[in-house]
Amino acid sequence: MTEKFKKPDYYNTVMPYLILDDVNAFIEFAKRVFGASEKARYPDDDGRIVHAEVTIGESTIMAGESTEQWPVQTAGLYVNVNTADQVYQKALDAGAVSVQKPSDQEYGRTCGVKDPQGNTWWITSDLHT
Predict the structure, then answer these.
(1) What are the strands of the beta sheet with 49-56, ordered from one edge?
(2) Could you tell me the pTM of the whole model?
(3) Is 84 helix (H, G, I), strand (E, B) or coil?
(4) Could you give the CA distance from residue 127 to residue 86 in angstroms, rounded to a whole number?
(5) Residue 56's closest CA among 121, 2, 6, 101?
(6) 59 CB contacts (<8 Å, ≥6 apart)?
(7) Strand 59-65 and strand 17-20: pairing?
(8) 125 exposed, middle or buried (CB, 10 Å; 0-12, 13-18, 19+)?
(9) Which domains does the chain have, with CATH numbers?
(10) Which of 125, 127, 99, 113 is nearest to 30 (CA)?
């Protein structure tokens, strides 16, 4: 009898699943910029990452590498951080390009970057931090 899958504690009700050209680069970007923790990485026999999981805070992002059958599917991701300006600069230093410089909005200090894989990250912190 096959053992039943038990959902890991870090799984959320809804989790983005990205299809990317370079999952390894995505994981390293998420670690460097957002302090992500790698939870899983499953390569195939050729070293291509068929599935990976990282957590940022209490949220999980899943990713797999693109194929002819599964073309690239990037996403827009909204991340709450302690200091938006510092994380924005970390993202730029890690190879992202700016899509919106840090500015005060009614919902917080916010900015946006596009990572080297094509995902857009909206980075926001409380105005009082």
Answers:
(1) 17-20, 59-65, 49-56, 37-43
(2) 0.91
(3) helix
(4) 14
(5) 121
(6) 12, 15
(7) parallel
(8) buried
(9) 17-125 (3.10.180.10)
(10) 113
CB atoms within 10 A of CB 53: 21
Question: Residue for token digits 């926001």?
Answer: 124
Summarised one tens digit per residue, pLDDT across range 39-93 is: 999 999 999 999 999 999 999 999 999 999 999 999 999 999 999 999 999 999 9
- Encode burial over 71-87: b for 16+ CB neighbours within 10 A, e otherwise: eeebbebebebeebeeb
User: What spatial distance separates the first Cα and last Cα of the chain, rounded to whole Å?
Assistant: 53
Write out the E strands in the chain: 17-20, 37-43, 49-56, 59-65, 76-80, 97-105, 108-114, 120-125
